[in-house]
Amino acid sequence: MEIPDFQSIMLPLLRFASDRQEHSLRETIEALAEVFHLAQAEREQLLPSGRQPIFDNRVGWASSYLRKAGLIESPRRGVLVLTEQGQKVLTEPLDRITVKYLDRFDGFREFREASRKDSIETPAASDNANDSTPEESLEFAYQRLRAELALELLTRVKDCSSVFFERLVVELLVAMGYGGSLKDAGERVGKSGDGGIDGIIKEDRLGLDAIYLQAKRWEGTVGRPEIQKFVGALQGQRARKGVFITTSDFTKEARDYATNIDLRVILVDGQQLAQLMIDYNIGVSTVTAYAIKRADTDYFTE
Fold first, then answer.
1. E strand or H helix at 268
2. Is 36 exposed, middle or buried (0-12, 13-18, 19+ CB in 10 A)?
3. What's the pLDDT at 112?
4. Disulfide check for 97: which of 5, 10, 181, 289 has CB 3.0–4.6 Å away?
């Protein structure tokens, strides 16, 4: 079964609260998961950010809209209880509560008007409401922007020189926490006779071990023979760990080979490289940042 959209959750949520007792949000989520017969895998499916289960997010937003309409209230943080108005709604022959239905309530209309006035009306509260919560809409938009940025980064990296790419790889690993500063932690080799090694980086600040790098600014897919050459170069250096980074991709045979050898060799393809550059701020700059906040109802408890 698919995870229900937040509008499909609102009526079952009201029915769950029909005993007029206080219920925690966690208790409500667990009860509604049973109502919708969600499997554990569906309950654990996360938003694109990976920070919250999709179902939990949708239950949270369903309760938020019901609260704006005055059908439930929260006497304190993370707790909900049915109101008199909510009890009246449950006497109606409803199959589903939608955003359009909630528009009959003064509190919800005021919320919509305030949103329009501030030019921040959320997708879920719009006339053409979809099945996504505001956070889902925001996160999917963020993922689209991130995918476009990754594609641009990869294109730019491919246009740069091999020397620049080798330096970028070392800078990235330093930014990821290997070693300390660029001066102390990593060095670019990438010269004639390097034996297939493009860089060396300390695994930690003390330099207890070294990681050898191979950076291939390629268009074609990297096959097993290239990985075998890299492994041979590692053995020639008596190295135990290596990272092979390319702007393209690896064949299945190359990945299988790297997985089954005794040496520890990590393969990083172009897409993963671009994502790491974004995560560790290599070649990118922050345009703007949005902090999503919620009212702390405990603060207002007298």
1. strand 264-268
2. middle
3. 78
4. 10
- C-alpha dist (Å) from residue 62 to 14, 17, 126, 136, 222: 10, 13, 15, 13, 48
Enumerate the H helices of the chain as residue ranges: 6-16, 25-35, 40-43, 54-68, 84-89, 99-102, 106-117, 134-159, 162-175, 182-185, 224-236, 252-260, 270-279
224's tokens: 């097993």
Give residue for tokens 């040496």.
263
pLDDT for the residue numbered 192 = 40
- Asked whether 166 and 177 are in contact (CB, 8 A), the reply is no
Tokens of 32: 């509604």
Coil/strand/helix, residue 120: coil
Side chain identity at residue 33, one-letter code:
A
Letter string b/e over residues 204-231, b meaning 16 or more CB atoms within 10 A of that residue's CB: eeeeeebbbbbbbbeeeebebebbeebb
Q: What is the pLDDT of residue 124?
A: 54
- Between 167 and 72, the more confident residue is 72
8 A C-beta contact, residue 99 and residue 10:
no
pTM (global) more than 0.70: no
